[in-house]
Amino acid sequence: MTLRTTAALALALTGAATAAAQALVPGERVRVDAPGVGEGVLVGTLRAARPDGLRVQMEGRDWAMEVPLPAVRGLWVSRGTRSKAALGAVLGAAAGAAAGYFLFDEDEQVDGQGDGRGLAMVFGGAAGAAAGGLLGTAFKSEKWEPVSLASMRPRADLLPTPFRVRLRF
């Protein structure tokens, strides 16, 4: 191998190792799909990521579980939680406006003038939006980002070999 080829290979290996190291950081919340290890999909805190496996501390447990990398079918990192307040407000506004429309007659008036049905829709929509928004804060969803397993598994073609082969034609 020439010096240039060796330098390019070393740079590529360093870049691949850096990308794999940046993908998983101990302390992050992870979700691991590893059939035969644990019960269903494992969710917990990553304690260690090694080339042969992961150490994940499950929620509510004092000990960490070893997950061999060959058993892992899927791996995700949590990118935070979001409440469903906006969705609840929109659905509540629609339900409140619909209730106001159907509860008031078209001919009803408020204070002897105006459209009672229209005001009922406005106030029903506002009340529904407030109630739906409050209810939506109770429901949270978590955003999961997939992690490439290929970047974690050692590639046989990149492992150092104990001998050199030189072909000249």
Detailed description of the structure:
The protein is built from three helices and six strands; from the N terminus they run αβββββααβ. The chain is 36% helix and 25% strand. A hairpin with a 7-residue loop joins strand 1 and strand 2. The chain starts with a helix and ends in a 23-residue tail after the last strand. Mean pLDDT is 76; it is low at 14-22 and 155-159. Strands 4-3-2-1-5-6 form a six-stranded antiparallel sheet, with no helix packed on it. Helix 2 (85-103) packs antiparallel against helix 3 (116-136). It has helices spanning 3-23, 85-103, 116-136, and strands at residues 29-33, 41-50, 53-58, 64-68, 74-83, 140-146. It is an alpha+beta fold.
Task: Give a quick precis of the structure.
The chain is α+β, with helices and mostly antiparallel strands. It has helices at residues 3-23, 85-103, 116-136, and strands at 29-33, 41-50, 53-58, 64-68, 74-83, 140-146.
Sheet-strand content, in percent, reads 25-35%
Share in helix: 25-40%
Shape: elongated
* SS elements, strand count: 6
What is the number of helical segments per DSSP (H or I, 4+ residues)? 3
The largest sheet, given as strand count, sense and whether it forms a barrel, is: 6 strands, antiparallel
Instruction: Please give the radius of gyration in angstroms.
Output: 29 Å
Physical arrangement of strands within the biggest beta sheet: 4-3-2-1-5-6
Structural class: alpha+beta
What is the H/E string? HEEEEEHHE
Compute the average pLDDT. 76
Name the poorly predicted regions: 14-22, 155-159
What separation lies between the terminal Cα atoms? 15 Å
